[in-house]
Give the backbone structure.
Amino acid sequence: MNGIEVLELIRAGRLWLQVEHLHELAPDLYWLMRAAYDEFRRRIPHFTYFNLYTNLLISGPAAKVTPHIDVAEVLLFHIRGHKKFTLWDPAKFPVPDEWRESIILREQLEDIPLKPEWLGMGQEAVLGPGQGVSFPFMWPHAVENLGELNVSLQSEYHHPASIRRYAALFANGLLRRRLGLSPQGTGPGALGEALRAVAGLMAKKLKVHSPKPRKVALAFVVDARAEGGVRWLPEQERMLVTK
Ligand SMILES: [Fe+2]
């Protein structure tokens, strides 16, 4: 399929395309994002960033992203169409740290099994062109397109505080799995978290934990002749792919 056919398929339903390597394919967009981040750094006290990663998301009118947790700070700039963004505040909807640890230790993908009764209870916002969204590190969220072709410029980055939290969860995950301990939280206050984080970073450096690549069942293929451009595969034809 050529690019126009791919876009037509996306326009027809639930498919989405994530355009990577923007610094090569669309350097104007990449440098625009860098300029935005540098402006934040000048204007927002204590804001800083590193490992900036950005991509262009083109998604169909019925595309949905089910509840999940990202292992990075996220900032999404919305350009075209409308999408509903739902966020679950962990103070009101507590999710176990074990879920975050499993994602960080790469035992599972980012999707999480939120309680069904929570699905309509998160904080919702509709994003239109020119709006954006950001939220605290590792908060559960979901996205649903509202009937139009959507285009967003997505970005992920790290902040020293998110690296500290990531490393503390990494350490807790190992304590729980290797030593059978039940760590409560990530340590008392920022200092406790920092100490736990040092242990986590050292464990990572020493390669104490080397996860097997995650295997995901390939449940469908993109097929222009199928309804909505998606042909679901019977169970026996599903292949395991590494992700
Ligand atoms: Fe996300």
